[in-house]
UniProtKB/TrEMBL annotation:
Official protein name in the record: YbaK/aminoacyl-tRNA synthetase-associated domain-containing protein
PANTHER family: CYTOPLASMIC PROTEIN, MULTIFUNCTIONAL SER_THR-TRNA DEACYLASE PROXP-Y
Record-linked SUPFAM superfamilies: YbaK/ProRS associated domain
InterPro entries in the record: PROXY, YbaK/aa-tRNA-synt-asso_dom_sf, YbaK/aa-tRNA-synth-assoc-dom
CDD domains membership: YeaK
Source species: Photorhabdus aegyptia
Signal peptide: none
């Protein structure tokens, strides 16, 4: 599957569910701060997707953990809340196998049966729209926040780092 196939699958899903969204083509940006400026959105509107490997005693689960781009993940908290002892970021190879995307281009939707989708509730509390890369570092989707919640139906797990 290519980045265009991921994008097409994503937009078909959004269209089928009558979501309110728009697509933006833009130059490649490596960091959340840079892409937010290019998009004209707030950093906290970014839906950052982290592919994690959660492990525990007789427990192994890949997780696509989504949180606002202005937050840091507490992977230990994430692991404990979904039944594991520890969590780590998946390798680039694992990320590609599970999402068909490179780091930074992963949309906040899981299209793989072995990739559990969780989202931090903070994602739904501050902005009417979320922005995320849509299978490519050069293409973003800006989506109504409630439409994302309704369509993706992530398990809600509070795992942003609290200072």
């Amino acid at each position: 599957m290519s980045s265009n196939e991921i994008f097409n699958r994503l937009t078909a899903l959004l269209d089928n569910h009558h979501a309110s969204y728009r697509v933006m083509e833009h130059p490649t940006a490596g960091r959340s701060e840079e892409v937010a400026k290019i998009r004209g959105t707030q950093l906290g509107q970014g839906a950052k997707g982290l592919v994690c490997h959660v492990k525990g005693e007789r427990f192994r689960q890949y997780v696509l953990a989504v949180l606002p781009a202005d937050q840091q993940a507490d992977l230990s908290s994430l692991a404990k809340q979904i039944g594991g002892n520890r969590a780590s970021l998946a390798s680039p190879k694992e990320v590609f196998e599970l999402t068909q995307c490179v780091f930074g281009a992963i949309p906040p939707f899981s299209f793989h049966p072995d990739l559990k989708l969780v989202a931090d509730p903070l994602l739904f509390e501050r902005f009417d729209e979320l922005a995320f890369n849509a299978g490519s570092l050069e293409r973003s989707v800006i989506l109504n926040t409630q439409d994302y919640h309704r369509i993706a139906q992530p398990e809600l797990v509070s795992f942003h780092r609290v200072e």
